Records
---
Amino acid sequence: MEKSVSRAEVSVEETWDLRPIFETEEAFEAAFAKVEQEADAFVARYHGKWTSAKQVNEALTAYANLFAPVERIEAYASLQVEEDTSNKNNAQREARTASRLAILGKKLAFVPITLAHMEEGIREEAARLMPEHARYLARLAKDKAHFLSRETEAALAAMAPTLAAPEQIYADSKFGDTVFPPFTVNGKTVQMTYNTFENRYETETDYALRHRAAEVFYGELSRHRHVTASAYNARVQQEKIEADLRGYDSVFSFLLADQEVPRELYDRQIDIIMQDLAPIMQKYARLLQSVYNLPSMTSYDLKLELDPTFVSHVSYEEAATYIKDGLSILGEDYVKMLSQAFNERWIDYAENKGKCTGAFCADVYGVHPYILTSFNYRMDEVATLAHELGHAGQSVLTCAAQPYLNKEMSLYMVESPSTTNELIMENYLLQKAGNNKRERRWVLSQMLSKTYYHNFVTHLLEAAYQREVYRIVDRGGSVDADDLSGIYRDVLTRFWGDAVEIKDGSTLTWMRQPHYYNGLYSYTYFAGLTVGTQMALRLMASSGADGKGDGASGKAVGTDQNEVGRNDLATGEDHAGGSDRQAVIDSWRSFLAAGGSLDPIAQAALVGVDITTDKPLKDTIAYIGSIVDELVELS
């Protein structure tokens, strides 16, 4: 039987090093006590009405200086839980941290509401005197009508740990109660975990093993469907109640406010992709069925790769080389950051029991980002690493360019740096493939099955499902396990049509994703990838290599279609069009460094993308269609 290892059995080289955050537990506690003391001093000095721009800027500077170490405290507590959810000491530390930070939040809740309701002239003068505060002050002024009283805001801040209970219940059910029973296929006994299903068995080429693993996986999930549904319903009901309390006309307006994009843009993203991308992906599903000679194409077969044996094993060191070579176009300092991430243990890539599923990148202001994943030694995980390192690169560049209050990029744009990294690396691999048809087919299939399938299809289906849930909640309704499975089945059926048989287990996909507890997050993946695709196409056009045809035509969907010469993305060696390419790279680095200093529309404009129209989205869908068409030809 294949063994699942505990955290203690994992090699230290496969784990992240959290000592740069705090060297010891004692250092963590000392820093926490200092922040609490400084918060009390801040309240004593600044609580009350601010009557001058100088007071405003002094208070905001002190406020930011308070929250920078808070981010380190939160990271130290939460990251240790993510690496091993079964560790009781880690869980207790995180719970204590959340309670103490809630008290801190209650004390400081007066700051945003005071700034929002102050005299406009004082706020404008403060922004003029310290432009680094202008964006933060402007956003508070815009949200003025939706602030509650000081007492109510303080009460909500104090209740933060209990308001986070739905997501904690979901996590406890997922990591504490969900245990997959061993099963036997072809005489081999398999002990499966959440991570091994998602990283290995869901893409397993052996039909019997893949389908049996899915049956066991979803069978165990089904046992917990009612508690998970109750937790999720509690979360969406919370959001609806808060939307009403704050005077928003709908829960959608409330959830989109922080993203700074209109409802029309949100709906358009979902509607156009459901309509225009669906037939393209149905064509791809039929291709998979043909290649694998499947009697019928089912939802358990959609994660198959077209050519899984072309590169069957990738070491961690090889992954690092792929990524650094592929992303070298972004500059020497960017490659240096990548080397630090791999060499200085920014990345936790072990696969152990109790580890959080999926992958993420956590900012730690004043230290460096940290990445969690479970490396499966396959090429799809190289794309995942490139994705998370895209978040890391954005964090490093933003923290170097922006003050703390402008650090957070809009949620709408947050997946652009990550998805663009995937595409840049994959187009580098396309160039390396040259005229080798099998290698080219393999790279294109990776691009489609990993980057576009995950970010455009998986998250689209989640977003379409979420929209239906919030429509019910907005009308005053609630949802249970049967409702959620029914909604998900309907979304899957509408998207895949008669090309794919929807298995009952797949209707439980709503149980797999923690993103649902973060509002309208899922749709931002394909919003980000739309910007990322246009960025990658501009890079290809400016270097004369579009990854299509002979690999050096310079043509790209959604560009001016001009041939501008050839460039080697791996070496940065210019043959023609180098200045064009550098201008594109510079604009992208400006995008990455902008952080939260711009709204999403202005930030996308930095790289020549107008997200107020549907053209970037339609161009991206057309590009995906061209990849599927070529895969059909090459197959």
---
Amino acid sequence: MRTELEEKYEILRGNHYHLSKKLEYYESGKAFESFKAKYEKEIKKLQNKLAIAESCYKKLSEKNNQNIAENSRLRKIISEKDSELQDVIKEYEGMLDEYKNLIDELRKQINDLEGTIKKMSATLNRDHTNSSIPSSKDENHKKIANSREKSGRLPGGQKGHKGALRKPMEPTEPVVKLVPEEVAENPEDWEELEKKRVRQVIDAHMEIRCVQYEAHAYRNKHTKRIIYSAFPANVVNEVNYGEGIKALCCILSSYCNVSIRKTSELIRSLTDNRLNISTGMIARLPKELKNKTEEDRKEIIHRLMCSPALHSDATGVRINGEKWNIYVTANGKDVIYTLSKIKGVEGIKGTPLKNYLNAVIHDHDRSYYNEEFSFREHQECLAHIIRYCQDSIDNEPELTWNSRMKEHLQWIIHRYKAKNITEEEQEELIRTYDEILDTAEQEYRSHPPTKYYREGFNLAKRLKEYRNETLAFLTSETELAYDNNLSERLLRQCKRKSRAVISFRSSESTEIYCDVLSLIKSADQQGINIYQMMKEGFSRTR
């Protein structure tokens, strides 16, 4: 009879199978094709209704014109005929009012259908170029345009160009001296010159190094007391794993997103089945590293607090089926990942930004503007704003402000990179920015936004309200980045891990993952060898 744990395991395995099938269905693109076909069918129906409504509107308009003409004719007859015609005129006037009401209703239906079509088209056409959707989630990647002219030359190295050769190494094995067969047969006929050709074969293999410690027993001849020599601090169990193998396992599971079971299998394969590390041992390594490197993370946080500007962003993960958030705080050299159950002000409080006083670079999250924080200034991500401008261009082609704003922001970035903007040019750039927003205000008076698409109008309103935060990098005394791409790149690691595990098992294991990843990414940002850093961390005593 199966135990309760085995029954739960079977249920979870079944759920995992169904979820895997569902994920495979979405990743294969069939879901997108189904949604696309459904929307296209719905749009076609709405277009047919629109055509019918326009046809009815045209017929009723013609009928209305005829009724107006007939009404005028009857009014002339009234002056000549008796009062009996008054009843006929009233009847026609009543019919005319009915036709007018019907025309107004049809016109309203036409506007609703056009708005629905516009909203559905905007949803279908939204991708990484005009929204916050990452390019990896695009169902159908567009072909990347190549404006370079074909030269007719084959790919690869070209004549006259300096080649990038592989760098040779110092030999680790005895040099193999090659002697031609003719020289070997008649060495007295040949003279060896100093000139030579050198080629290398570089390979790598995993070597097991096992050190055995023996603590012999010693007995005092007088007191008969028996003592043993003390083992080194890191030699605790009968069989212990060294820092190198621990660092490799931890890198594979925490940084390379390799599952614990696959990590164990890989180590076993690399060592020709001589080293069989249990999955439980591998699962405990991140916690061991976290406990031994607590001071390192405190030092990272201290350096972040002293930075003139910090990047911040968050991404969602699932823990035991619930939605959690991982925040990242970085300055280009140091990185801290923080786990939070709640997103917003309370989530930011759990990061180093809680007591931070300098500039913060983020996306348009209003939680950062809360009065509980004392940031000196804000810089919003221009990469997102430019994509939102493109979305307005795609869905509001009758307007001009959106394309002008996109080009102007790109020009500001270009001039900022040149690092030679004068005060006069800076004032001109800001003045042009304000003029474009004035144009947007005028254009939305002529073309008011509808309930079906307000993103462009909301963007213009946001750019005007958060003008200083949008252009802070241009006017700030501190050198600020104009986008938050650093946070996006750093959170990509968490997103890949989240896709690999689907759902973390507990908040404790996820927090350990964040702490270890903070060390790894900080070392990576500083150009430090990650493997050596983790070896050094495992070699410490708590």
---
Amino acid sequence: MSSPLKTHFGRPQRFLIFSLFIFSFLGHLQAQHNSLDLIKTRVYNSIIADYSDHSVKDKETHFDDGAIDTILSEFDGEKWPYIHYDDVSREGFDNGIHLNNLVKMAVAYKVGSSKYFKDKVMLGKIIDGLRFWCDRDFIGENWWNNQIGTPRSMVDLMLLVGDEIPQNLIVQAQVMINRADINKGGSRPGGDRIKVSSIAAKNQLFLNNKKQFDLIIDIIENEIKFVDWIGSEFGYTYSKSNRGGFDEFSKANGRGLQYDYSFHHRTDGVNNTLSYGLSWAQAFVEWAHYVRGTDYSFSAEKSKILVDYYLDGVCKTSVFGIKPDYGAKNRSISRPGSTKAFDNHIPEKIIAITDYRQEEMKAIIRLRSGKGVEDTTSHATFYWNSEHFTYQRPTFYTSVRLYSSRNMNMESPYNSEGLLNHHRGDGANHLYTRGNEYDDISPVLDYQKITGTTTVQKEKLPHYNEIKKLGLTDFVGAVTDGRYGAVGFDFKSIHDPLVARKAWFFFDDQYVCMGSGISSKSENEVNTTLNQCLLKGAVTVSSKGKRQAIEPGAQIYRDLDWIYHDKIAYFLPTPIDVSIQNNTSKGSWLNISKQIDSPKEIIGKEVFKAWINHGQSPDNATYQYIVWPNIRLDEVEEAKLNALETLSNTPYLQAVRHTDLHLLQAVFYKAGALTVGEDLKIQASAPCIIMVQTNQKGEIVKITASDPNRELSALVLTVSKKFKASGAQFKTFWNSEQNRSEILISLPQGNFSGQSVVIQ
């Protein structure tokens, strides 16, 4: 007789299996609860660290009570009289300072090294301040304050001292915290859903609601994804987000992480990588760090997307990976300190989460720690979904900001910020060798002479409600193989009767700026600005071979060969007149932002500004200048520009060849042919931007091409050289009768339309 435990379907075995299942299930639940406790502790410690003004010495945290002393000295028992509690406008609502002060007080109450540690008088003041807010429930005109700002501070306060707060205040606080609702309008995809979800997740930790926490953490992780841009079919500004209620509003509609690693917060196609996109990444990294090593850990796939976006999106849109590019910023330039250097909090957390691309992340940490330039990545990057180009070498960083019929030119002046940003998307070409060239220049900036732009000079800019508009031209784009690149811009001004064909050609030590077909029906002057930045040191110019250090002031200098300022030389192949200003410019933060905390006083800053005047109503005017960053003044006169050969600068074709690099770059605004020397002719079947790399023998070894119009499925290039190669994206045919190669290149489609194709 067999043993009962060996009976296949016997009751004892079924009971054993059931018992094991229950044991396993209970063990899993216990592990999840342990994970929840660990995550809650991590969140608590993070709040302490974020709000503390502390220093670390001998592995002990020493809290600085000075700031808390000031906060308490200004507290009248329930509020801070200097706060404008009645002003809940979009420009006002400094009420948030009240809750921020309470959180700081709560941190001091919880930190052992503070003199206020477990001080019951302090706790009483926190409760009195919270009661003042809860009794009035301040609602701002800007939804952000109600659905993100207030709930975020409130939930932090609950996680710190909620267990010591009267129950009736907790109930009132929950009403305000729950306005961070993942099922309401503020939780639209993009930069805000993750913020709202983060608040909701923290609140469930406070409430010990595991079921709701599980749901929300799943939402957070699944928001790490690429989004299809709705404009690929209907145009970049087509959106149903304001129709059909929240169901339509909650759809991505192009909001979120783009396939080129830029970021769109709204349905306008404006690049938000360094604003909403940065906070999007920060929130995800924060949660990935909270849940690491627990049952809630993010998947490797999601972690890789985060790392790729941070390195290829955020860092490559930043100067040396250290500071935000002024040219990539939107309305935030009207806030003091908006271009301050990044810290290492995000990359250090990423390294703790995953070892994917860890060496590159460590290089960013070293750069931000001031360890030198040896870790600087040389790159040429084009964000084709956002019309933004960045270029970096160890000694300089530069960018070109563009817009087309596929996207808007600039973020709207929400909350009355960025009131003069009309021309900041018109081919702005900011340049850095140090990184602080444009720090807080905004209040004194001449907004009709943005670096790199060609602009009609007006008595004043249009109303700020006219800033944001859809572009008028399709031909906007760039070509890049990852190291070198060229940009083409069929510029049609959305504000003035002005057209121009503008191009930039980037090499290792210099880049070439070209304009042609510059025409305007306006009777006003049209200017192209070489640079407008903070003045640093002397300005030297050369005319007809004679150089001079110019006096401070503003005047026109005749027949200039070159201009030199702050380690940058601007060479003019054909001597022309250039206007230069090198003195004090004045302005006010209040002129560009009507926020309640905008400084109102008139300030002055020393500014360098150089521009070419094309005259009134120009007709087919041109310009060309060569920028050589990081060059000494004593090297300028001996600088060799022979390697840079201008092949064409017309409204139909702009092209440059660098003979030392054996690299040709060309912008074809229409189908046409380009003759290069005696033995090379290139013909394009359609508008395109191309790069052709040859070896020392003159043999073609690589071709890179893109379609700025985003219309072609294929491009045919014909070259008068034998080019024998084949690949997944191209075919070549040798025409022996005509002695030429015909190259059929398949071009990217859909979310990748506008991306470059490299064949070699």
